[in-house]
């Protein structure tokens, strides 16, 4: 992985609670709240100044803009929810561009796991643990925040262990 391990270690403790919250709110109400997306952006804006060299930190904002434009287009086409697009844009600066191929594989695996876990819980007695969650009764719709939040959390956790270390 090309993300610096030190940067992943800085970002992970701040982003993990946000990722878990996004998973929870999307399963419960089929929404990713704006305040959670803004919190994720604030983590990058503040922690990124400490965790990353200035040039890489500033390039992260371009990543945010590019992913936001792509997300808006996908949302307009009905392929992605607005909250999902905003979350992906806020998460984009936290991802090292060189890890994009790995991230897509991680997202695909996480999406499959999240989808099957959600459907399994939906059709088993596990559903009784949270009987009023909106995601149980949305037909074919799926709480994508579950996969998006999980992917970012896993990416940063893996980055702590397998990320680049500075030469000694």
UniProtKB/TrEMBL annotation:
The keyword NADP does not apply. Residues 16-117 form the Prepilin type IV endopeptidase peptidase domain. The keyword RNA-binding does not apply. The chain crosses the membrane at residues 6-24, 36-54, 60-82, 102-121, 141-162. It comes from Ponticoccus alexandrii. Keywords: Membrane, Transmembrane, Transmembrane helix. Pfam families: Peptidase_A24. This is Prepilin type IV endopeptidase peptidase domain-containing protein. InterPro entries: Prepilin_IV_endopep_pep (IPR000045).
């Amino acid at each position: 992985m090309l993300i610096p391990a030190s940067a992943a270690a800085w970002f992970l403790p701040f982003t993990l609670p946000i990722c878990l919250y996004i998973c929870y709110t999307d399963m419960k109400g089929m929404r990713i709240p704006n305040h959670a997306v803004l919190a994720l952006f604030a983590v990058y804006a503040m922690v990124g100044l400490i965790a990353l060299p200035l040039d890489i930190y500033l390039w992260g904002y371009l990543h945010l803009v590019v992913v936001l434009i792509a997300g808006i287009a996908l949302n307009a086409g009905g392929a992605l929810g607005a909250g999902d697009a905003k979350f992906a844009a806020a998460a984009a600066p936290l991802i090292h561009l060189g890890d994009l191929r790995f991230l897509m594989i991680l997202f695909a695996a996480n999406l499959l796991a999240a989808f099957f876990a959600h459907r399994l819980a939906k059709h088993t007695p596990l559903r009784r643990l949270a009987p009023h969650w909106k995601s149980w009764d949305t037909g074919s719709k799926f709480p994508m925040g579950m996969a998006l939040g999980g992917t970012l959390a896993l990416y940063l956790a893996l980055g702590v262990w397998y990320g680049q270390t500075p030469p000694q």
